[in-house]
Amino acid sequence: MRDVALVSWNLLWQTKIGEGDTSLSLAEIDPPAIVVGSFFEKSFVKEPQRRHQEQWRGTQNKDVVCLVADKY
User: Fold this and answer.
1) Residue 71 covered by a domain
2) Which of 14, 15, 42, 55 pairs with 71 at a CA distance of 20 to 30 A?
3) What's the chain's Rg over C-alpha atoms?
4) pLDDT tens per residue, the chain (72 residues)?
5) What is the rounded distance in angstroms from the CA atom of residue 7 to the CA atom of residue 5?
6) What per-residue confidence (pLDDT) applies to 45?
7) Which pLDDT score, from 0 to 100, does residue 4 have?
8) Pairing verdict, β 16-17 and 65-66
């Protein structure tokens, strides 16, 4: 999960808004922490599912669900 968090965090800060010469990075717009947190949560939930589709579900609701272990 640590790697998932780090990948998600790095991808988040690579986000661009707009296109071409007028695009802005997320850092340039300096969004409030709640916005950054929301974007991070969405990215974090998708990453395990992208890596292990048969084991993780994350895009149907806000929870990350391990499909092979009821504990998670």
Assistant:
1) no
2) 42
3) 14
4) 888 899 999 999 999 999 999 999 999 999 999 999 999 988 888 777 777 766 666 555 555 555 566 665
5) 6
6) 82
7) 85
8) unpaired
CA distance 16 to 13: 8
Domain that holds residue 56: 2-66
Task: Please report how the helices 33-51 and 2-13 are oriented relative to each other, as an axis angle in degrees rounded to 10.
Answer: 120
Residue 11 neighbours by CB distance under 10 Å = 15
The conformation of residue 69, written as its DSSP 8-state character, comes to -
Tokens encoding 6? 């780090």
* 32 occurs within a structural domain: yes
